[in-house]
Amino acid sequence: MRRLELLRVEHRDLDSAIAALVDAGSSDQMQIARLKKRKLRLKDEICALEDELVPDIIA
């Protein structure tokens, strides 16, 4: 549970960092791309952990 919350916080922080770089007109597209890839990896990990917590219900 704690891990999931930490991942969500990091995901939110990355979102803010990416937005700040874009708003500032940063020309470092490689850094923005790396942050976006990290954000996607975090999202995948968050989804995997959430799937483990919620059992599959077969109707």
Task: Give an overview in words.
With 59 residues, this protein is mostly helical. It is built from 2 helices and no strands.
Keywords:
DUF465 domain-containing protein; DUF465; 59 residues; 2 helices
Quote the beta fraction.
under 5%
- What is the ordering of alpha helices and beta strands? HH
Quickly count the helices. 2
Strand tally is 0
Q: Give the end-to-end Cα distance, rounded to a whole number of Å.
A: 27 Å
Q: Given the C-alpha coordinates, what overall shape results? A: elongated
Q: Which structural class do you get from the secondary structure elements?
A: mainly alpha
Overall pLDDT score: 92
Give the proportion of residues in helices: over 70%
The largest sheet is: none
Q: Work out the radius of gyration.
A: 15 Å
Question: How would you sum up this structure in a few lines?
Answer:
This protein has 59 residues and is mainly alpha-helical. It contains two helices and no strands. Helix 1 packs antiparallel against helix 2.
Summarize the SSE layout with pairings.
Elements: H1 2-23, H2 29-53
Pfam families: DUF465 (PF04325)
Protein name: DUF465 domain-containing protein
InterPro entries: DUF465 (IPR007420), DUF465_sf (IPR038444)
